[in-house]
Predict the structure of N-(5'-phosphoribosyl)anthranilate isomerase.
Amino acid sequence: MKVKICGLTTESAVKAAVKYGADAIGFVFAPSKRRILKEEAMLLSRFVPKNVLKVGVFVNETKDIIEEIARDVSLDIIQLHGDESPAFLHSLSRPAIKAFSVSSVEDVRAAINYPADTILLDAKGDKYRGGHGTVFDWNILHSLKGQRFILAGGLSVENIEQAKKEVDPYWVDVSSGVETNGIKDSQKIRQFLQLAKGGCHDEK
């Protein structure tokens, strides 16, 4: 199972994600308590090796701004959480993840029919698009067994093993589940990665 640690805003959090084996790290450039400025992300990206993907999260942003940030931060993937059309997604210069808030089988069907490189399934939540730490009913995902998608929404050290058993996603995306009092917790990052990947990860 591959793991993305999202909403990183500090050097210590980025270094912990890399040290303990994250496959991708996420910078949020959309309205959120974890929002980061382009200049800050540029500095943090220096601590991300080439084998770890850098993902930028956007919500209904203009193409020009997305492309500027992607270029300056050297993003590998663009993650869209808004109302972006397939045409908009396919006009981008980098591979894209399209995120969907789901609460029913119908929502899941709509998501899998969207022509994206990868889809991310999250819980419906508050005023922000994603990142609110809520688990949705995984039973609505039974039709996706064997398909590649990203599971998000309320994942933590307490339920990641259950998610592996019941959902078996190709990727998982965690943010608030590796925080303590709203701040990324290096030990929770370590523990989550160990549990998600099924064993201890050698420190780099």
In short: The first strand starts at residue 2 and ends at 5. The radius of gyration is 16 Å. The beta strands are 2-5, 24-28, 53-58, 77-80, 96-102, 118-123, 150-151, 171-174, 179-180, 183-184. The first helix runs from residue 11 to 19.
